[in-house]
Design a protein that fits this description.
Length: 193
């Protein structure tokens, strides 16, 4: 692993920044869902609480990785914060199916971006690569759990999932200044070679 170019170092800083913001957004989603679920969907609370614990650990890991990569918290953290809380609150009002549709949409989008980052970082930043490796299985477990809870999702739940995935992709793009798209292209090109 050699010295990173200025462009590569900037991309690495953006990766750690967006991952920190995303984990913070997930904390806000799960916190709001737990608030509502305690009253209306108490069966969901144990799983949501476990996932919230994972997201707090992931957020702390990315925050700790920032200084060494000349990174700082995302400029659009308020979008992640308030958007995550509002998304969690509203989807929890829809009941368990809304909760799990939200989790499935967010985790599927996050997992796709983590795969792109994982490929990009393999020869550029082994420390950050290891952090992502350590959390990927938990994030994938969240996705699988959510999908198992969804009972024959109809067109409205599918539409909800698509809208949440698109919003998550937009926030990721905004938080990385488009680097998320370049990483996805690099991964696709590497798979074709």
């Amino acid at each position: 692993m050699g010295e990173l170019s200025r462009r590569e170092a900037l991309t690495v800083a953006r990766i750690v920044r967006v991952n920190h913001a995303g984990e913070f957004g997930a904390i806000r989603i799960y916190s709001a869902q737990i608030l509502v679920a305690r009253r209306f969907s108490p069966d969901c609370v144990p799983s949501l609480s476990e996932m919230l614990g994972h997201e707090r650990q992931h957020c702390a890991a990315f925050r700790a990785a920032m200084p060494a990569r000349n990174s700082r918290p995302c400029r659009v953290m308020q979008f992640w914060s308030w958007g995550g809380w509002l998304l969690g609150f509203l989807t929890a009002l829809l009941g368990p199916q809304g909760i799990w549709a939200c989790t499935a949409a967010v985790e599927a989008t996050v997992h796709r971006h983590l795969d792109d980052q994982f490929h990009y970082l393999a020869e550029r930043d082994r420390g950050l690569h290891a952090i992502i490796l350590s959390i990927r299985e938990e994030e994938l477990a969240h996705l699988h759990h959510a999908e198992e809870q969804l009972r024959a999702p109809g067109p409205l739940l599918q539409l909800l999932r698509v809208m949440i995935a698109v919003a998550t992709d937009c926030l990721i793009w905004l938080s990385t200044w488009g680097d998320s798209v370049r990483m996805a292209r690099a991964l696709k090109a590497a798979k074709l070679s």
